[in-house]
Specification:
Elements: E1 3-5, E2 10-16, E3 27-31, H1 45-48, E4 53-57, H2 76-89, E5 95-100, H3 102-113, E6 118-124, H4 137-147, H5 149-161, H6 167-178, H7 182-191, E7 208-213, H8 221-228, E8 234-239, H9 246-249, H10 251-264, E9 274-277
Parallel strand pairs: 3-4, 3-5, 5-6, 6-7, 7-8, 8-9
Antiparallel strand pairs: 1-2, 2-4
């Protein structure tokens, strides 16, 4: 089992690569969202790993990585440092960064603070740069502590996956996210889930793709465009639907768009701040 040891925890990670053996592929680092693990990218790996080396870590506190105590002080810089150290251990200096949900907040901070590591950035169904609702943190923590993670996951799942996701899939995601350690959820929501990353956006220098849906619960298309356009070399892709975890609800469409974007990222003709709409 691949484990990377940090001073205060262990990070589980997976490397998937099905490229032609005579090639030297670029690397993609994939960051999952809150209460998830590297398993959340199950539908993406078959497509991406045929063309890239794919590194999928479990964020500290989640999946098969070490659960974090309630009193642990989570910060974006600590998470960025975790991932930099992991990639250093694998001998990978620069890479494409792909992230979903709150992983997209971490990824935008990562790209803004460590632009030297980035080949491209793709964020899928991610919150605004200053996410509203921080006043809900005490109530969320109380819910985690008294009712457990699955209660929270079940209560909030409809908005994540939209109206067309199969019932069996909704139940799978509910149990998957509901298995997250409460101690990690408490600290993460207190320290990272509502972090302000507005100052990081103009510092992102790599080509960037932002993917959202027409009626995402994380923000309207207009609000998404507001922060997206603060990233100098960025595109906005709007998919039909209401889900905000579009990396799961529309995994194939998102993965295909991300693959095409990463393959084109080094090109000189990337159009800045262009919005793309897919046909219904």
């Amino acid at each position: 089992m691949p484990i990377f040891r940090l001073p205060d925890c262990e990070l589980f990670y997976q490397v998937d690569q099905f490229t032609d053996p005579w090639t030297e592929p670029e690397t993609v680092l994939m960051l999952h969202g809150n209460a998830e693990s590297s398993l959340s990218w199950y539908a993406w790996v078959p497509l991406l790993a045929r063309h890239f080396r794919v590194v999928r870590p479990d964020m500290r506190g989640y999946g098969q990585s070490t659960p974090m105590p309630r009193e642990y002080e989570w910060t974006l810089d600590k998470l960025v440092d975790d991932y930099c150290r992991l990639m250093d251990s694998l001998g990978i200096e620069r890479f494409h960064l792909v992230a979903a949900k709150i992983g997209g907040t971490i990824a935008r901070a990562f790209a803004g603070r460590r632009p030297d590591r980035m080949l491209s950035l793709t964020v899928v169904g991610t919150p605004q740069a200053l996410r509203p609702g921080a006043e809900q943190i005490p109530a969320l923590i109380e819910e985690f502590e008294t009712k457990g993670a699955e209660h929270w996951a079940r209560r909030t799942m409809d908005g994540r996956l939209g109206e067309h996701f199969p019932d069996e899939g909704v139940e799978w995601w509910t149990q998957f996210m509901g298995s997250a350690p409460v101690s990690s959820l408490v600290g993460f929501n207190r320290g990272v889930n509502y972090a302000d990353i507005r100052a990081d956006l103009p510092k992102i220098t790599c080509p960037t793709l932002v993917i959202t849906t027409e009626e995402s619960g994380l923000g309207t298309v207009e609000r998404t465009r507001e922060w997206q356009q603060k990233i100098p070399d960025s595109k906005l892709l709007v998919l039909p639907g209401k889900s905000y975890h579009v990396a799961a609800s529309d995994a194939e469409a998102c993965a295909q768009a991300t693959l095409q974007f990463m393959q084109a990222a080094p090109a000189k003709d990337i159009i800045k701040n262009k919005q793309i709409r897919t046909p219904r």
